[in-house]
Amino acid sequence: MRRKLAAGNWKMNGTAASLEEIRKLQSILPNGGPDVVICPPTTLLFSACSATEGSGIQIGAQDCHAETDGAYTGDISGEMIADTGARYVILGHSERREAYAERNRDVRHKTSTAWHAGLTAIICIGETLEERETNATLDVIAGQLASSLPDAITADNTVVAYEPIWAIGTGKVPTQAQIVEVHDFIRSKLVARFGAQIADQIPLLYGGSVKPDNAATIFEAENVDGALVGGASLKADDFAPIIHALADS
Ligand code: PGA
Q1: Which mutation among 129, 159, 209, 218 tests ligand 1's pocket best, with the greatest number of atoms within 8 A of CB?
Q2: What residue's CA is closest to ligand 1, atom 6?
Q3: How far is the CA of 201 from the centre of ligand 1 (A)?
Q4: Which atom of ligand 1 sits closest to the CA of residue 233?
Q5: Kindly report the CA angle at 114 between 111 and 117, in degrees rounded to 5?
Q6: pTM > 0.85: yes or no
Q7: Are 123 and 93 in contact (CB under 8 A)?
Q8: How many whole angstroms separate alpha carbon 108 and alpha carbon 91?
Q9: Which residues sit with their C-beta closer than 6 Å to ligand 1?
Q10: How many structural domains comprise the chain?
Q11: Biggest alpha carbon distance in the chain?
């Protein structure tokens, strides 16, 4: 049985007052449900870790530097993230690939550094609308998987999130057949490279406009083990039904 995971990416949203949403979420989580991770902005990592201590919720960051330390003004390292008590880090999100020109090899280096700090990496991959419309999706996914994932992968240190860029924050969701096709393809690529024993245990998340009303259908896919949720993770009342749908899947 693969573990199920619901991860919330708050992006550049949230102040100390937003911790209330995390406290509220704790009170409405299903017993024995899936793993839940909240990735608030860096400023809230410490306080979010204290607020969730002893609860089922884990905390993650949204990025880290590829180096362990040094003269990188404004950046944070994997070790600093781990020092807050956070256990996860999102890497290679399309917003970072786009806005900061992060390449697959940057994501690979960051992943190795994050692992070294004891963090689990949530590695994001996904195609643009143009790539989708020119039937390049599977080639793009294959290339991102090949170049973004280091060899020392384990089922504990990595989660892969498929996020079609055109579905992020747009309200557009791929058809269920498209989700199934890409997730099955990702699993087969992981099996081919890392062997079934490791690959079958790596959680694969779908991300891009996951909402309370579409989550249950998305989770029906065999190789969808959870979701990476942006907008709908900001409010406990929106995120909780998604987590419940995953628990019931
Ligand atoms: P969204 O974002 O759920 O708001 O579409 C998903 C993401 O960027 O991870």
Answers
A1: 209
A2: 230
A3: 24
A4: 3
A5: 155
A6: yes
A7: no
A8: 9
A9: 9, 163, 168-169, 207-210, 228-232
A10: 1
A11: 48
CATH number of the domain that residue 64 is part of: 3.20.20.70
The amino acid sitting at 187 is R
Using the atom order of ligand 1, give the atom closest to the CA of residue 209: 5
Given the CA of residue 170, which atom of ligand 1 is nearest to it?
5
b/e burial code for range 80-109 (CB count within 10 A of at least 16 → b): bbbebebbbbbbbbbbbbeeeebebebbbb
Residues in the chain: 249
Contact predicate 185/147, CB 8 Å: no
For residue range 153-205, list pLDDT tens digits in order.
Answer: 999 999 999 999 999 999 999 999 999 999 999 999 999 999 999 999 999 99
Domain carrying residue 153:
5-248
User: What angle, rounded to 10 degrees, do the helices at 19-27 and 45-52 form?
Assistant: 20
Q: What is the pLDDT of residues 191-227, one digit of tens each?
A: 999 999 999 999 999 999 999 999 999 999 999 999 9
